[in-house]
Amino acid sequence: MSRNAASHDTTPCPGCAAPALSRRDFLARAHMGFGALALAGLSQQWALAAKPNRPPHFAPRAKRVIFLFMDGGVSHVDSFDPKPALDKQHGQPAKWRPDTLSQAISANRKWLKSPWPFRQHGQSGLWVSELFPNLARVADELCVVRSMVGEVPLHGAQSLLLHTGRAAAAAPSIGSWISYGLGTENEQLPGYVVLNNDWIPNGGFQNFASSFLPATHQAAMVRAKGTPVDNIHPADSMAVQQAKLDFLRSQDSAFARSQGNSAVIESAIANYQTAAHMQSLVPRLCDIAGESVDTLEMYGLKRANDFDTSYALQCLRARRLIEAGVRFVEITCPNTHGNNSPWDQHGQLKLRHAENARITDQPIAALITDLKTRGLLDETLILWAGEMGRTPHSAGDDGRDHHVSGYTIWMAGGGIRGGMTYGNTDEMGMSATEQPLDIHDIHATILHQLGVDHERLTFRFGGRDMRLTDVHGKVIRALLA
Amino acid sequence: MCSMRKVGAFAVLMLAAALQSGAAEAHDWESVYRARLKWWSLAPVAKPPVPKVKEPSRARNEVDLFILAAQQAKGLKPVAQADKRALARRLSFALTGLPISIELSDRFLADGSPRAFETLLQSLMQSPHFGEHWARHWMDVVHYSDTHGYEWDAPAKNAWMYRDYLVRAFNADIPFRQLVLEQVAGDLIAPRVDAASGLNESLIGLMALRMGERRHGDNGDAEGVTQEAMADIVDTLGKSFLGTTLACAQCHDHKLDAVGQRDFYALTGVMMSTRWNVRTVDTTDPNLATIEEMRRIKLAIASETAKRWLGTKKDIAEKIRAIQPETNATTTFPESLVGFWKKSVASPVTPEAFALERARRVAENKANLKLLADFTREDGARGWQWDGAGMRHGLVRDGEMVIAADGNNTLSQILPAGRWSHVFSQRLSGAVRSPLFDANASQTFSVELAAGRFAARSFIVDQAFHSERMQFMNQLMPRWQTLTAGSFATLEGGVDRVPRRVYLELVTKSLNNYFPPRTGYGGLNEAEVADERSWLGLSRIVQHPAGKPPLDELARFAPLAVTAPGKAEWADRLADILHAAIERWSRSECDAEDVRLINEAIEAKLLPNDLPANSELARHVASYRDAEKKLQPDRTIGAASDWNEGRDERVGIRGSYTQLGATVPRGTATFLGGAATRAQPLSSGRLELAQSIIDPKNPLTARVFVNRVWLHLFGEGLVRTPDDFGHLGEAPSHPELIDHLAARFVEENWSLKKLVATLVTSATWRQGSIPTAGALKVDPENRLWHHMPLRRLEAEAIRDSMLSVSGRLDAKLYGAPTDPYRAATDASKRLLSGPLDGNGRRSLYTKMTLMDPPRFLALFNQPIPKLATGRRDVTHVPDQALAILNDPFVIAMARHWSERLAKDGATSAEDRAARMLESALARPASPEETARLVKLVSQSAALRGAKTQTLLDCQPAWQDVAHAIFNLKEFIHVP
Lengths: 481, 975
Prior knowledge:
Chain A is an alpha/beta fold and about 475 residues long. Chain A has helices at about 25-30, 85-90, 135, 155-165, 175-180, 240-260, 265-285, 295-300, 305-325, 350-375, 440-450; strands at about 65-70, 110, 120, 125-130, 140-150, 190-195, 220-225, 330, 380-385, 390, 395, 400-405, 405-410, 420, 425, 430-435, 460, 465.
């Protein structure tokens, strides 16, 4: 089996120029060429089974989204939500107002101060801890929301909630909704791509699935290591595959004719054209050989650790995919040590939070900087979010548990106001006390920036007009630039 | 399903509800409900008259008359009947999911009789692959998977046995009515036994409702864990059997259908009153003869051992003396042979002190202990239940020996009277389960038990599937263990809650719902998961105040209180006691105190327990162990049981788990008759619920089922929303035909095979697949069946066709699933990779992991098994083309096929190419097609540098041909 990626091929990124075509008449039927950015709604190959794509409901501020999924739950009180009171009460028995979102108060739980000092950064004076020194440098781009409230302090439920707006039921992922609602800008590529780091988050593949939306809108998974996409490398040499495609063309068109020019068969035939294109396009997009040394260094691709370089690679690929017209790119975190999930530090907080931060901090900051330099940050909305925060208290001295009654996420670019914080938790970081938001509000706001009214983006299923935001969600205008 | 924890109101639906229900006032549920009962799918099934049509000769049976009548009303005509070859291929895929064999097809083509089609139908219906194919259809509906997803993808306990049950049931054409009873209440009806395997099929059926995502932990950890599972069960129940979205009423009365919120909680009450236990499903005992043999050998071992021990009295005293006694006086009162010896020098126990201590202990036990359950007698543990083949053979008297399963020892231990799973083998299973405890009052009790090899105990809170209160027990010698039950309402604050349901479960691996648990749990490693051995047993359970556990009454040491003349030496006195105990044991007259004494002596190595080489004893033990290997472990599966401890649920206000409204009597939905009088008043009501589903007065079950069968055979249902026959589903295209089929289905004893035969022998099913332009204009969606739609094969049939055509198919039925081939694995979630070709087994036998379902199959629309899916999507995406072009499985099948060609006796490339195409498409190749294939093989051979005269030997070129054929649209489409 051939495993030759197009790594020697130095054709520029397809978002910028069309590659030289070597395949003959079969491929020549591929109208428009690789680089053409089809408008939303014209994605014929990818949306054959879908309802027609829709134009935005109103003028969009952003065209696409990059979702940095901080799987397992970053500690808010160790990253973007400083709590001096925790320092003062460190080691004291912890008491809080009981609620169904939080765990039981027990005698052995004590307040735990952050091991990472906080400082203000940028012109905006945004608070960032030493956990994220590189993000601190782009503080003025970040819009930090400190008042997120979840539904249940469990990974699977929260992860599904974050992705699909539902803690339990099998609903489509936000990426699928956006792909469905707006279509892809490049008909040769899927609308929703997950840059995976060899780890399936809690909640399983459902996090990335199209559920009741047409399967076209399901995430295409791109692996960090090895073959980036299933079956993308041709099993045959070009010449042999071409011989087969020639045979298939004549044989299949005869079959289509014998079936009264069946639309089903015609679309199956068309898929072979797209597939043939993807074989060269996707590896080229995933291949970063043409990137400058400066870029590679900025993203941290020259770092020594395997996890570090994988994550950096995926961040750089995210930019390339965005440039090529993918609507929604998600990057997952690598799971470094067989934990439940990467950021889930019930113990070893200092070691593992620092490790996760080391892996992700530099590439993410580089991605923001790179997009900005290329003039793409304005139209690319970045969401950085885990499914939960972590408890300000602990039963030990180096771990924090699941926490959903008040935690932090941030956004950047895409018409979101940088250098601001929104909402607040109480002085210990327990509950969102000011301007509490739930994930549906974030979903509604993201859709809004894409020109989509979250109440009007619906799909009829099981007799209901289903929405990403279910019956919830409001656009948070204070977050908009 | 609605959003679980929040207000599930939908603006759009409110409006729709208001419009459709005649703007009834929302609070007047009664009148709304009565209005909603007037709905086509809830009306009784009245067998309608068969319509009169023009040109009745076009009809082959009554089905056609309904279809023709509707067509003629629109001026439409059916297209001509399909040709015989097309029909044969279509029928084979429709009935078995496999391509037709050349032999069967040839026989059909040669059969000139008017009944030729029926003959072919009979052979395909009698094929065991019929059951496999129809099992898979039903597995979509109950959303079958081998694991439970969520965070750790814990296994659905032996779910594959349920898959095999379905295969047997559909092959044997068990009436669907019976299958409903079994899948809802199989534990509460007379067992249906599979004669060949001795399995209790009815119990296996219960796995149907357990499928789906299940969290670990329980309501005591996070409120809602079980409620979520129950909502899934109610959802599946409603959609699968009734075509009704019952779970839409979790948060409010159903917006459009005749389902009140109270109905949802009535049904939840039934499910919450059910224990979701793993159960043994054997109805016969295959081990009786072997166990008799083992009993005989054991007698010989016992007598050898007695001889040996009785002859070592002197050695015993010597061995005791060799133990270092304590030189300082201590105050702890001794409780063992060794303990008494150790104190014998510095602070010997005086007869007075002994008598005082013994009296104190007897008195305290008498005051504190209340016997809860006595497992030393058949009838002593009222309210408790045991299960498992080990336990069935495990009721023993004091002194039963357990022969060491391996190693160089004779015995593991001597058992006191009680019930023990490992009397003969650690591979036989055992479970002991308690009645419900008072969950609000903390309750302390002690169990006299021994257990090992990851036998577990857990308090099951609110019917949790995967309790993380589970603890593995490892205690070789029987001792008291103190446990505390109750106080599981751990959340503080003012939340409303109902009392928890809590019981204790002691289980060996194979009867444990949560075994294997998530990886690494309790120090378990994967080798220990694979080891089928596990054991436990117990004697008594006593309740007592906290901190007042049972005290050892020391009866076995009573002789020490009487100083025998000439026995000042403690070692001799202790040896005497032990010797007397052994003597009683050898005469089968020992009691629990003797057992304890002997076990103490074995533990302290005072008695020989090794196996001297070449001894009689060693020979006996070896033959005992050989016999043990012949024992068949009992077969177990996640099922359910009803302990007559039913309790009604309270309504969750707006679906909340912690804000509760009125209590609702448990039972079936109001539109099926509501809560019925229960045969067992305290039972869950599951039996009555199952009966309401198959009640002849319930029109839904038969209607929904015949529509499913129609959908599978025709590609689209008469109702195109097979899981929703309510107001939000689609209206039926042919309501009279559905009723005709439903009535006939019931008359024909709910027979799937008869229904299938009726449908496929119709002229409608046997039409050609090319519509006329005129018909498409009138009826573009083909709702009137003016042609038979061309269909893409289902995912499994695509993969199975490749296996079959390449010659790799292993047609074996049944068995544990095979992991799918995975490019990336995750051992921590047991997402492992299996062989590329799945050992040639049909796709049905590929492991369905909820967290990461088989990708090749998912790509071709095998549904993610989280929700009932009566109708699969059929999408066309480029990933599918990429898969057939490049997936290593497809390439491997092409290679396999090409390698077999070496022996095909082909005389020319033309000859071989034509035969390959025919075997793949069940029709002869035209000369033009043959020429195309020969061109391809020549090109490929040339590219590989092969010479023309050796073309037939150029395997890689023929692999290319095979691969190209797999890529044909005709290969995966059926006209």
